């Protein structure tokens, strides 16, 4: 019998290839070669499944980002370089097919919209945490966090999405502008982000 995780992992794949329209019980069961009984063993219906799927995707995205940031030195340039390197991994932080599918779903479904909002807020908060080591100006921190994030969202939304290797080169250009020195010290020096 398929586990709950099997169902959710399959659903995330379907979301990326067929969008939320592909999340229907009969096609899911046919794809997995099981009966509806297997589905209903884990979920009360398609609404319950979709809720669980949104929660699982949100958990995966946030866990991947938190792991990437926590596993590196606290220097912002190192953290951002690490995040850039994760673009190359198919199951990493850049998954344009899922980014597009969830954002499209969010236009017609409040639960998907709330999940997308939580993901966006968490990603921005993590990036602001990185940049806060280089500035005490909240506006500058927010703008510096938004720049790479908006590039990633825009790259996902293009048709076709920007290939990983191309996006990696774009981020390599942005990384050149990230200060390499340590956060402000006792002398109160505040580096200017992106040379502004």
What does this molecule look like?
The protein has 196 residues and is mainly α. It has nine helices and no strands. The chain has helices at 4-18, 25-32, 36-42, 46-70, 76-85, 96-106, 110-131, 138-157, 164-176. The radius of gyration is 19 Å and the shape is elongated. The chain starts with a helix and ends in a 20-residue tail after the last helix. The model is unreliable at 185-196 (pLDDT under 50).
Instruction: Give me the count of strands.
Output: 0
Main sheet properties: none
What is the number of helical segments per DSSP (H or I, 4+ residues)?
9
H and E order: HHHHHHHHH
- Helix residue percentage: 55-70%
Into which percentage range does the β-strand content fall?
under 5%
N- to C-terminal distance: 58 Å
Query: What is the radius of gyration computed over CA atoms, rounded to a whole number of angstroms?
Result: 19 Å
What characteristic shape results from the CA principal axes? elongated
Average pLDDT confidence is 88
Weakly predicted, low-confidence segments: 185-196
**What class, by secondary structure content?**
mainly alpha
Short description:
By secondary structure, the chain is mostly helical. It is built from nine helices and no strands.
In terms of topology, how is this protein built?
Blueprint (H helix, E strand, L loop, with lengths): L3 H15 L6 H8 L3 H7 L3 H25 L5 H10 L10 H11 L3 H22 L6 H20 L6 H13 L20
């Amino acid at each position: 019998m398929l586990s709950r995780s099997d169902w959710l992992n399959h659903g995330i794949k379907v979301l990326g290839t067929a969008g939320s329209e592909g999340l229907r019980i009969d096609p899911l069961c046919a794809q997995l070669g099981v009966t509806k009984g297997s589905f209903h063993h884990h979920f009360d219906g398609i609404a319950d499944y979709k809720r669980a799927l949104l929660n699982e995707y949100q958990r995966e995205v946030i866990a991947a980002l938190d792991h990437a940031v926590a596993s590196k030195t606290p220097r912002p340039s190192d953290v951002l370089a690490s995040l850039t390197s994760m673009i190359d991994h198919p199951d990493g932080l850049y998954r344009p097919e899922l980014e597009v599918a969830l954002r499209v779903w969010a236009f017609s479904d409040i639960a998907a919209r709330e999940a997308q909002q939580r993901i966006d807020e968490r990603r921005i908060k993590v990036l602001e945490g990185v940049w806060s080591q280089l500035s005490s100006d909240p506006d500058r921190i927010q703008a510096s966090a938004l720049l790479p994030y908006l590039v990633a969202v825009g790259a996902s939304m293009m048709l076709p999405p920007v290939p990983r290797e191309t996006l990696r080169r774009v981020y390599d250009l942005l990384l050149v502008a990230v200060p390499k020195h340590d956060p402000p010290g006792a002398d109160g020096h505040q580096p200017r982000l992106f040379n502004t």
